[in-house]
Amino acid sequence: PNSTELNNILTEFERIVLVHPDVAFSLYHNDSEIFNLPIAPLRQRIISVFEKKLNEQLLSVKVDTAIVNISGFIGKPEASRKRGAHQYFFVNGRYMRHPYFHKAVADAYEGIIPTGEQVPYFLYFETDPNKIDVNIHPAKTEIKFENEPFIWQIIAATVKETLGKFNA
C-alpha cells in the first residue's frame, strides 16, 4: 500500500488494538514488522502503540454512574501540544468520534493549558447499547447517546476533578 493507505491501515489498527489489550497483535508492512503487541494492561498497550514518554503523562480516570461508566486516561497539562495529541473515545468496545464530548474534555483544561493546544486522552464509555444510536454516520464512528448533556457534565466534572487531584 502507498503511504496514504498505510496511514489509513495504521489508524484502524490503533482503533482496534486500543480496545483489545487482552489480545496480542502483530502488524507487518512489506515483510517488516511494524508492531508486535503482546497482551498487556491498557496503559501498557497505549504506550506500546504510541510513545514511552506517554506513561509519565497520563492520569487515570474512572467514574461509574447509572447512565454511563467512563474509564481510561487523560493527559497531564504538560503533555499538551499544538497538534497531533492522541485523542480517542470508545463506547462499548468500539471507536467513536464525538465533537460534543471532545469539547467537554477541552473545556475542563481551559485556563490550565495554552489556548489552542490539545492533550492526549483515551476515554472508554460503557453504557446500555439501547441508549445509543450508532447509525448517525455511514462509517458508524459518530454515535448519539441518550442524555448527552448529562454525560457531557460527567466528562467535564471527572476531568476537572482528576486534574484537581493531580495539581493539589
From TrEMBL:
Tell me where the signal peptide lies: none
GO cellular component assignments: mismatch repair complex
- Domain spans labelled DNA mismatch repair protein S5: 46-164
- Specify the protein name: DNA mismatch repair protein MutL
What are the recorded GO MF terms, alphabetically?
ATP binding; ATP hydrolysis activity; ATP-dependent DNA damage sensor activity; mismatched DNA binding
Q: Which InterPro entries match?
A: DNA_mismatch_S5_2-like, MutL/Mlh/Pms-like, Ribosomal_Su5_D2-typ_SF, Ribsml_uS5_D2-typ_fold_subgr
Q: Which GO terms describe its biological process?
A: mismatch repair
Q: Which PANTHER family match?
A: DNA MISMATCH REPAIR PROTEIN MLH, PMS, MUTL, DNA MISMATCH REPAIR PROTEIN MLH1
Q: Name one Pfam family in it.
A: DNA_mis_repair
